[in-house]
Amino acid sequence: MTRHARNCTAGTVYTYHEKKKDAASSGFGTATHRIGKDSVKNFDCCSLTLQPCRNPVITKDGYLFDKEAILTYIITKKTEYTRKMKEYEKQVKQEEEDQAEKANEETKKQVDKFISIEKNIVSTKSSKPIEEQPSTSGAISNVSLGKRKELPAFWVPSQTPAAKIAKLDKPDSKIYCPVSGKPLKAKDLLEVKFTLVKDPSDKKSLIAKENRYMCAVTHDILNNSVPCAVLKTTGDVVTIECVEKIIKKDMIHPLTNDKLQESDIIPLQRGGTGFSTTNESLEAKHERPALQC
């Protein structure tokens, strides 16, 4: 078979290139698109508002938030928990009342059944001799014993069973991080101190600057392509290279000479870059109906 050219439409072979081209124009097939720089959060932006942090704080897992945004989130979740807990307690109280009412109804049914049987026995004894009394077992109608509610007529709208309300589960009192999904407490938030880039010639505002912050020790410019870490004792932001080459040698803070531990170094989670080796997933997929041939 001869080779089939890319744009040749006279051949009998439906090539992969033609199939992909037709799928793109017809709206069929899964579309894959590489996420651009505008769709990726900057390293110094809040994970909730996606805007540069005014009062940055960091969690134990290294996720950066604006203090106002994350505290608002925690308060909202606590309010939601209180509301759900009230609804759950109301449901539990209603279930207890229903069970008590059901027990009372069962007791009343037994009493009514006993009284009904006693009345039938007394009336039979008074009207006929003992030797002519018929057996009372199985002679009493279900309707006379008050079993009409147990055997409803389903074709009557008034006696049709109603749908039950969905049962609520007991709400969880823990508040979880909106990014990592791990338990989050306000007391665990650590304040972060970014070191501003000192450039007298640059008169732009802080948000408009491309290079806003630098390493507190080496003064290297910080951006999404530079791995960073936060020192827990002071909140200073340094590069991972500084941590590996300077700090981990003696485990001493270069600015304050305080002793550090491994838990005092919190890697700062980055939003992402355009390099495939830096991030795990930077492709967006849109699944559409497949084009069958």
Q: Can you describe this structure?
A:
- This protein is an alpha+beta fold.
- A 3-stranded antiparallel sheet has the order 3-2-4. It has a 3-stranded antiparallel sheet with strand order 8-7-9.
- About 2% of the residues have low confidence.
Total number of helices = 3
Count of beta strands: 10
Which sheet architecture does the biggest sheet show?
3 strands, antiparallel
Rg over CA atoms, rounded to whole Å, is: 37 Å
Shape: flat
**Unreliable segments of 5+ consecutive residues:** 273-278
Share of residues in strands: 5-15%
Question: Which sequence of SSEs, written as H and E, runs from N to C?
Answer: HEEEHEEEEEHEE
State the helical fraction.
25-40%
In angstroms, what separates the terminal alpha carbons?
A: 21 Å
Strand order of the largest sheet: 3-2-4
Offer a quick outline of the entry:
The protein is an alpha+beta fold and 293 residues long. The chain has helices at 16-26, 67-127, 240-250, and strands at residues 31-34, 56-58, 64-66, 190-191, 195-196, 213-214, 228-231, 237-239, 265-268, 283-286. The strands form 4 sheets. A 3-stranded antiparallel beta sheet has the order 3-2-4.
Q: Any chance you could write out the topology, listing elements then pairs?
A:
Blueprint: H1 16-26, E1 31-34, E2 56-58, E3 64-66, H2 67-127, E4 190-191, E5 195-196, E6 213-214, E7 228-231, E8 237-239, H3 240-250, E9 265-268, E10 283-286
Antiparallel strand pairs: 1-10, 2-3, 2-4, 5-6, 7-8, 7-9
